[in-house]
Design goal:
The chain is an alpha+beta fold. The chain folds into 2 domains: 199 residues, 2-Layer Sandwich (Nucleotidyltransferase, domain 5); 73 residues, no CATH class. The chain contains 9 helices and 12 strands. The chain is elongated, with a radius of gyration of 24 Å. It binds zinc ion. The site of zinc ion has 7 residues, from loops.
Length: 286
């Protein structure tokens, strides 16, 4: 199995054909990394953009890529075909930092007529997810590539951050530092129909209690002090992703604010429940 770290740069533009904003890929950068963590092959390619003929100011600022450089690039389908050739015949796993690059690739492949799937993607691994699992960091906070590099003692000195090739090198180095083949196996996804359905699925917050996916057994509150069920002081109200209500424990004389979010994911409903004590304002005696 060949491990490849891939990174893309893109330019956010308005696509008239699709009547919406579109992340047009402007650069591919990738490296192959061996068992010892050594990089033994690299690929870099600029794309001659077609949707946005000019780069946006923030893209230029971030990447330091110029409009003149973009003009020297190849068309997107050519870049895909060159990249596929570079990967070669060996079975490969493509790794990216977060799955955003894969979504952008799917959109670009569709837009430029390369198909509904990514022609070179056989197996995929989201290295950010794997890294966060190994480091035991919170799922709600995503760790950026340079922060991750710092965590494992890789210096990004001498690299051009936000250039595809150098970012792919840092990705590969992070991978080498935390490579544990047994756990990695769980994170390698075969890029079949299910993979694509999952990755393009948009998670949706449920905003009505009438939705059959809402499991009402979560809409309650147990007192943190005595462990008994609390009584509801208010009805459940939905605002800003959460259903919110206040509860009260008479035995302990404690009020609770309970917030519950139900989110429809691809194959399950995710529940997030936050309970906190409502601190009463201290009344000063006259
Ligand atoms: Zn209590």
């Amino acid at each position: 199995m060949q491990f490849i770290a891939l990174d893309l740069e893109w330019n956010n533009v308005y696509g008239k054909k699709i009547h919406g904003f579109f992340n047009e890929i402007i650069e591919f950068g990738a490296v192959k990394v061996d068992e010892k963590g050594d990089i033994y092959d690299e690929f870099t390619c600029l794309i001659n953009t077609q949707v946005g003929k000019k780069l946006r100011a923030n893209t230029k600022e971030l990447t330091h890529i110029t409009n003149d450089e973009i003009k020297t690039g190849v068309l997107f389908p050519q870049a895909v075909s060159n990249f596929k050739k570079w990967i070669g015949k060996e079975e490969s796993v493509i790794m990216t930092w977060g799955d955003g690059d894969v979504r952008v690739l799917i959109d670009n492949c569709k837009y430029f007529g390369c198909g509904d799937t990514i022609p070179f993607l056989e197996n995929y691994m989201d290295l950010q997810r794997y890294f966060q699992r190994l480091k035991g960091t919170s799922k709600s906070q995503q760790i950026g590539l340079s922060a991750a590099a710092e965590m494992v003692g890789i210096s990004d000195d001498g690299y051009s951050l936000h250039r595809a090739l150098d970012d792919s090198k840092i990705t590969a180095k992070c991978f080498a530092k935390i490579r544990e083949d047994i756990i990695i196996k769980e994170y390698i996804k075969e890029c079949n129909e299910d993979f694509y359905s999952r990755i393009i699925f948009k998670n949706k917050v449920i905003s009505s209690l009438k939705n059959p996916l809402v499991d009402k057994t979560h809409l309650n509150c147990t007192c943190e002090g005595c462990g008994k069920p609390c009584e509801a002081l208010t009805k459940w109200k939905y605002s800003n992703q959460y259903f919110r209500a206040q509860y009260y424990c008479a035995d302990c004389d404690v009020k609770y604010q309970v917030n519950v979010r139900f989110r429809k994911l691809y194959d399950r409903t995710e529940i997030r429940k936050i309970v906190r004590v409502i601190e009463e304002e201290i009344q000063e005696e006259a």
